[in-house]
Design brief:
The protein has a domain of 81 residues: Metal Binding Protein, Guanine Nucleotide Exchange Factor, Chain A, CATH 2.170.150.70. It starts with a strand and ends in a 24-residue tail after the last strand. It is mainly β.
Length: 130
Amino acid sequence: MTETLKGVCLCGQVEYEATDPEAMGFCHCTRCQRWTGSSLAGVVVDKRNFRFTKGGDLVQRYESEFAPRHFCRNCGSSLYDDIGGGKYFVAAGLMRELQLEPSFHLQVAYKAGWETIGDAAPQFAENPPA
């Protein structure tokens, strides 16, 4: 059965659908902390299974030497990272109906000192082994 998750940014001007999510997890790197104000909870989705249903023209891309990040230029909501390999890491907090449980924690070596991980999902100091 195909699962479709729907998300919407803070101002409601950008909406999207993510079909057949592969996993949900957390990235604790300092870049995600700076982008979102904390660790980023995200859903891994094949980019062919992601589409904007409203406000695609409001999506802005921020380029760095790491994953390109996309956000709503109106309200600043973090939308997704292009993590390569044809995959997106879509911000989980924008999907109110999300029922997935976390299945990984990445970049744990860089998590904020005040943050406590409270689930049993596997933790990787940086990235999981290839």
